[in-house]
Write a structure and sequence with these properties.
- By secondary structure, the chain is α+β, with helices and mostly antiparallel strands.
- It is about 30% helix and about 20% strand.
- The strands form four sheets. Strands 6-5-4-3-2-1-7 form a seven-stranded mixed beta sheet.
- The N and C termini lie far apart (about 65 Å).
């Protein structure tokens, strides 16, 4: 297989989707290139599928570096179309005849944030009939909605950080959260748009000023003295938990985008304490709550659960259904090589598809017995 980024046709190759028309485009490119390179280096044919900022899909082959994407679609990339119906899947246009199918036996999804981690991409792949890794469409949508996720966690018996929809909350409810407040997008990740503000008025002003909050914004209490701890969950071949990490804040009172990502490695290169030095009862609480959340939130593939603790108490913060670098850096005890993590994701995608069409009830009886449409409108 060429290492120049040229496209290679091969039955059975994996397609690694990364990029996407969203705020976390660049982080997604890093994760996708890591996964594509690891698969090819270990003899598993894979090609990158670059999802550009304007929404197009492109076959970019293998072996490219991050610099190739600084200007958008790299040279030599081939445009991919999407086909539904009888012969669904990716395709490329031909001058004569029908579009040519571009076969991928599985899609490795490496997109962070909307629209690749929120269920939109997963729904498209479901309709295309292509097996894919990571969350299902419902699981992705739930994980991206911080308010809904917190409600599901609470319903499952896991205490979550209290949060309110900023647009719907009245003054007394916001006042009960205290000051200062944390403001964050209701739908989003990578700490983009997470800000500390003095009061509710400042929160509302901030939300009006940035497109990151266009789909909704949340307000949370600032938990002084609390810090972040995270754990990864993977679901194939069986449920497994990683050691607990404590990410290191370097740029202020909140864990920022700059804390999480570095130019060369994405989240894999961020500063952390791993395993985290935490009290045994806190570690026990996190490891007990993680499987409960995984079941309630329909986790599939690998996810990272983010908690906060003050050393005596623990609250769940959010879930990352496609975490940065696929959380490969957390699997140290027992050590799980990245290639095994990827092949397990692929095995799960092929063995346990995220979606199976169900046509029960669509047998034509209702249509045969129905009166005319005109009669129904009369």
């Amino acid at each position: 297989m060429e290492e120049t980024g040229g496209c290679v046709e091969a039955e059975g190759r994996a397609g690694v989707i990364f990029g996407g028309p969203g705020p976390e485009h660049d982080v997604s490119v890093l994760t996708g290139l890591q996964a594509e390179r690891c698969l090819n280096d270990n003899g598993i044919p894979a090609a990158g599928i670059y999802w550009s900022k304007d929404g197009g899909f492109h076959d970019v082959g293998a072996g490219l570096e991050a610099a190739s994407f600084r200007g958008g679609v790299p040279a030599g990339a081939e445009v991919l179309g999407v086909r539904l119906g009888r012969e669904p899947g990716f395709c490329r246009a031909r001058k004569l005849g029908r579009p040519a199918a571009v076969p991928f036996r599985v899609i490795v999804v490496c997109c962070h944030g909307a629209p690749g981690e929120c269920g939109r991409l997963q729904g498209l792949l479901d309709l295309m009939g292509v097996p894919y890794t990571g969350p299902s469409q419902p699981g992705a949508a739930l994980g991206m909605d911080k308010l809904a996720f917190a409600a599901v966690a609470e319903q499952a018996g896991v205490s979550a950080i209290p949060r309110l929809d900023l647009a719907a909350a009245d003054a007394p409810a916001l006042g009960a959260l205290g000051t200062p407040l944390i403001v964050k997008p209701r739908y989003g990740g990578s700490s983009l748009g997470v800000e500390l503000v003095d009061d509710a008025g400042s929160a509302r002003a901030l939300v009006r000023s940035s497109p990151l909050y266009a789909s909704g914004a949340l307000a949370e209490p600032y938990l002084k003295g609390w810090y972040d701890i995270n754990i990864a969950v993977r679901t194939w071949p069986e449920l497994q938990l990683s050691p607990i990490e404590r990410p290191i804040r370097r740029s202020g009172p909140l864990l920022s985008f700059e804390d999480k990502y570095v130019p060369d490695e994405g989240m894999a290169g961020a500063a952390r304490e791993l395993p985290a030095s935490i009290a045994p009862d806190i570690a026990a609480a996190v490891t007990a709550q993680a499987p409960v959340i995984a079941e309630a939130a329909a986790v599939r593939g690998v996810a990272r659960l983010d908690f906060m603790t003050d050393g005596a108490n623990v609250l769940v913060n959010e879930i990352n259904t496609i975490p940065g670098s696929l959380a490969r850096y957390l699997w140290i005890d027992p050590e799980i090589p990245f290639v095994r993590q990827l092949t397990d994701l692929i095995d799960e995608a092929v063995t346990r598809p995220a979606y199976r069409p169900v046509l029960t009830g669509a047998d034509g009886r209702l249509l045969r017995s129905a009166a005319s449409v005109a009669a129904k409108l009369a």
